[in-house]
Amino acid sequence: MSSSSLDRGNVSPAHRAERMRSLRVHPSDQLTTLLAGMHDLVRSTEPESVFTSAAELSSTVLCDVCTVSLVLAAQEPYQVTRPAQRADLATPAGDPDELHPRPQLSADSVIVPIRPQPIDGMPSYHGVFVLAWDGTHRPTQVDVALAQLIVDRACAIVHDTRLATLLARERERAKNLEIALESNREIGTAIGILMARELLTSTQAFDQLRQVSQNTHRKLRAVAGDVILTGKLDPSIGCAEAPGLRLALVEPDGHEEHDEHRVPGRAPE
Q1: CA 60 to CA 38: how far, in whole Å?
Q2: Would you report the helix, strand and coil content of the chain in percent, each value rounded to 5?
Q3: Which of 16, 156, 173, 193 has the fewest Cβ atoms nearer than 10 Å?
């Protein structure tokens, strides 16, 4: 039986109940349907999204009502029941922090603790996963095992997506560090050229690069690149888009020399 054939919107509650009883008579079919559904669970770094999807699967294939209660770090507690209109049948799970660490089986419910593996740099969470029946089925250890399978799968999805997110962040960080390192190399090379050509200190050479960068509205790395290519600092490069720009060059003695009449892009006479 395919998971699509279990869509609650296409069948009456009585018909669905009959199908569920049939599935429980044939555990292999139920397991096949559950495995297919678990493959399609929502993938997210947010446990509430993943476990809501797991509750929808469970209430469709395994039980009559599924309730998830989560305690999220630095957030309000989260609770959801599927199907929502059967919330009256939901079994109270109690305080997740005081729950027994092992699954609990009763005459009409299964309670499975949610205890994921923590990941440094990601908010922690824990909670309970509760499956309940309306009297048409008495849960067994098979139901406990299937519920645990769903919880483990949901925890694994959150764990994997969080690791992928952290990996993407680290790759972006490494890329930015490479860019910054290359930029620093170019700026350092330009400073060295100006120091040798103009007999400046490193601070004076950097100040000249920065001054031209500010006056021409160009990145410091771009100005440094020009110095590397030409062997000199030309404040007119890159100023064509800013006519009338007032240039100020920093002299080796620290004073500024202003040329009010220079036209950007044109060499001094």
Answers
A1: 12
A2: 50, 15, 35
A3: 173
* Length of the chain in terms of residues written: 269
- pTM (2 decimals)? 0.63
C-alpha–C-alpha distance, residues 78 and 90, integer Å: 15
Q: Is 249 helix (H, G, I), strand (E, B) or coil?
A: strand
User: Under a CB-based contact definition with an 8 Å cutoff, are residues 114 and 72 in contact?
Assistant: no
3-166 CATH fold: Beta-Lactamase (3.30.450)
Q: What is the mean pLDDT of each run of 10 residues along the chain (269 residues)?
A: 39 46 52 85 94 94 92 89 76 64 90 92 92 89 93 96 93 90 91 91 92 90 91 67 38 44 40
Report CA-CA distances (Å) from 238 to 131, 212, 214, 234, 266. Answer: 68, 10, 11, 9, 11
Q: Where are the alpha helices (DSSP H) in the chain?
A: 13-25, 27-39, 47-61, 141-198, 202-216, 220-230
What b/e readout covers 214-245, taking b as 16+ CB neighbours within 10 angstroms?
ebbebebbebbbbbeeeeebebbbbbeeeeeb
The whole-angstrom separation of Cα 246 and Cα 263 is 9
- Whether the CB-CB separation of 82 and 90 falls below 8 Å is answered with no
Query: 126: which strand partners?
Result: 71
- The CA-CA-CA angle for residues 45, 89, 149, to 5°, reads 40
Facing residues of 171 across strands? none
106: which residues sit within 8 A by CB, 6+ positions away?
91, 139
> What angle, rounded to 10 degrees, do the helices at 220-230 and 141-198 form?
50
| Furthest-apart CA atoms within the chain: distance in Å | 98
Give residue limits of the domains in the chain: 3-166, 200-259
